[in-house]
Amino acid sequence: MTCRSNTRRVLAVLAAMCGLIAGCGTQDDGRTHITFWAFGAEGEHVAKLIPAFTGQNPDIDVRVQFIPWNAAHEKLLTAFAGGSLPDMWQLGNTWIPEFTQLGAIEDLTPWTARSQEIRDSSYFPGIWDTNVIDSLLYGIPWYVDTRVMFYRSDLLAEAGISRPPATWQEWFDCSARLKKRFPGEYANFFSTNNEWAPPVILGLQMGSPLLKERNTLGDFSGPQFTAAMHAFCRFFKSGWAPVRTAQIVSVYQAFAEGFFAMYITGPWYIGEFNSRLPDSLKGSWMTAPLPGPDSGIGVSLAGGSSLVIGRTSKHKEAAWRLIEYLSRPDVQLDFYRLTGNLPARVETWRDSALAGNPRVKAFFAQLAHVRATPKVPEWEQIAQKVREYAELITMDQYSVEDGLKALDREVNLILEKRRWLLRGR
Amino acid sequence: MAGRRALILFLGPALAAIGVFFFVPVLAALVLSFTDFDIYALGNIDYARFVGFRNYAHLLADPLFWKAFRNTLEFLLIGGPLSIAVSLAAAMMIQSKLVRFKGFFRTAYFAPVVTTLVAVAVVWRFVYHPRFGILNYLLSLVGIGGIDWLGDPRWAMPAIIVMAVWKNFGYNMVIFIAGLQNIPAELYEAASIDGAGRLAQLRTITFPLLAPTTVYISILTMIGYFQLFSEPYVMTQGGPLNSTLSVVLLMYQQGFRWWNMGYSAALAFVLFAFIAAGSLVQSLVQKRWEAS
User: Fold this and answer.
1) A266 in the same domain as A174
2) What residues of B are in the A interface, CB distance below 8 Å?
3) Which CATH architecture has domain B62-291?
């Protein structure tokens, strides 16, 4: 292992040099300097909330660094390997198990116990739960995200349907009637070439655990997920959803043209549709909670981003104060106004900005029916495989049964290390 | 003795630098390729295991690897010769006595080579846009309509090839120009006195005398094209349906997106073996050709 210690020595020298350069750059003004990484639109907008915080906390200086979403995961892992993670950062809540496993993030349980501002009762339980690993809390929900159904109410009305589907059966009937009324168009759109959410949601609705035996083996060929995949395929086989999704260049344009009438997606689409759909359609679309297999609202994904603190950070106290500030209902509301991201604090939803928006209502109802995906570090990798195989199955390259068996084989290969670790303990 | 000391003194620093920054990392990567170093091992080194040749076995049984390999080969076998042919044609055009503003054209053709790929990709994404792109507009004039260049699995790789050839041909063109300038003008004069036409001159003088340059360029192009990465990374991320996934892009995804470093390192060595074999074949062909 001489090569490793050599590498370490080189790294140490490099780190020392960086330290020197950084040391020259910072003037010691008695303030605590914390760095905060945020992604995508959040990163662009959150900086506007910071001056009010530093006004109230003159002893703290916050440096916000913006990182594009599609580079976020790589950037965080590389930063961990290089020991250069920031003091606090935004973390998609499906990534929390991974960074907990790495030991990269601070256990926040004692911090919340002392806090006046943050307690679990003011958050959506399903979302809060995604931050809990082995009964310890690792992140504070910042904003929430789940998937609901966006639909064209005018097209549904033209097909003689007065309200959005509430059950799978109604969803199928609704799709069939839309297809009959508009034979050249489609009822639904599932972006199988880049989204794993729809098949996974249907699986969760059927009660599939997705993984089994302490999350060490895939359960995609199990009866629940198989039934869900059959239902998913029905949309494609019946011509209710386009198989070749690449022909849709702009979802907004296709939705405006009536190419499809129903689309399962997240809250950011409220803002996007508002700004991109032509004015004539402003009142022609609505949102609804997802239909369930039997009756009642079907479950959806417990998504969103949390705020976490680096375990090796030297400024945890200052970082925690920033988290408390960003969790205040009034700040959460400002953040919603800036980005359209839905607030994690339930109190915030009473404000008219949210309560008065009929399209946001579906999200509030849906957030009481959310479920977390399996809390394993490999989940992101597994989810990509689910998407890949769902696409192959809808393109008829596999039968449902064969495809899901092949998917399980790949998932089991990904989870081999996890089985070995759990056996060893 | 003094000579040897001088040798060490002069070569030592360079060798040390190569050792630290090349041989040590390569050796470390080789060791890594026999382990299952992954996200768990990143957190705790005890969770890394020596697994012998398992990464290599998985790799050779992985349909995704073979898909990436076929894609890379397609890129190499179509894009490579195409790029060399375009470079040669451009070089001969610029060297032609009939062309004016040689300096301008040479610079213009070389400009894409030094342009940042990301900027190029943005422009080409507009060119390839199925509805607003100029390419589909031009095609619609001759009655061909609606090809989704980057979204259709059948067309994405050809689209990447065309862009890569456009981006890279200027480099080889400059080398070809140097090769053409090395051919003595007397040969052409003698040939034309003997009554050889332009085509005969091309066949009997230009091509044979350019052969060493061509071999050099083809080896260089093969090595470069085998490592196809940035074009699909910025244009398509390997999609649609993995139709533009290259071996290096797969290596990047495995290594940095999923942190399967062991697997990724094994992939690197398999790629190395293929490139080494390709270079060997090409130089053997050249030797045989020179001997005959």
Assistant:
1) yes
2) 20, 24, 27-28, 31, 36, 38-40, 42-44, 47, 49, 58, 129-131, 148, 151-153, 239-241, 256-259
3) Orthogonal Bundle (1.10)
Q: Residue count of chain A, please give it.
A: 425
Are A126 and A209 in a shared domain? no
* Nearest in space to A42 (alpha carbons), one of A351, A305, A359, A316: A305
Query: What is the DSSP code (8-state) at residue A290?
Result: P
For residue B261, the chain A residues in CB contact (below 8 A) are none
Region for A30 from its dihedrals, namely left if φ exceeds 0, alpha if ψ lies in -120 to 50, beta otherwise: left
Residues A285, A336 share a domain: no
Q: What percent of chain B has pLDDT over 70?
A: 99
Nearest to B112 by CA among B159, B158, B72, B172: B172
Examine residue A363 and state whether it is found in any structural domain, yes or no: no
What length is written for chain B? 292
Token code pair at residue A21: 């350069």
Q: Residue B47 and residue A421: Cβ atoms within 8 Å?
A: yes
- Give the residue ranges of chain A where pLDDT is below 50: 1-5, 11, 16, 18-26
Report the DSSP beta bridge partners of residue B84: none
- A132 and A202 both lie in a single domain: no
Q: State the average pLDDT over residues B96-103.
A: 85
Whether A164 is covered by a domain: the verdict is yes
Residues A276 and A397 in one domain: yes
Pairing of β A303-309 and β A140-145 = antiparallel
Range of the domain at A102: 30-145+302-356
Kindly state whether residues A136 and A100 are assigned to the same domain: yes
CA atoms within 13 A on the CB side of A96: 33
Q: What is the pTM of this model?
A: 0.81
CATH of the domain at A206: 3.40.190.10
Integer CA distances (angstroms), B167 to A333, B112, B161, in order: 48, 5, 10
Q: Which residue, A370, A410, A375, is CA-closest to A392?
A: A410
Burial class (CB in 10 A: 0-12, 13-18, 19+), A275: exposed
Long-range contacts of A255-258 (CB under 8 A, 24+ apart): A255/A150, A255/A152, A255/A189, A255/A285, A256/A281, A258/A152, A258/A155, A258/A182, A258/A185
User: Phi and psi at residue B241, in whole multiples of 5°?
Assistant: 50, 40
Domain annotation covers residue A21:
no
The minimum CA-CA distance between B222 and chain A, rounded to whole Å, is 29
| Complete DSSP assignment for B56-90 | HHHHHH-HHHHHHHHHHHHIIIIIHHHHHHHHHHH
Residues A208 and A328 grouped into a single domain: no
What pLDDT, in 10s, does the model give residues B3-51? Answer: 888 988 999 999 999 999 999 999 999 999 999 998 888 888 888 899 9
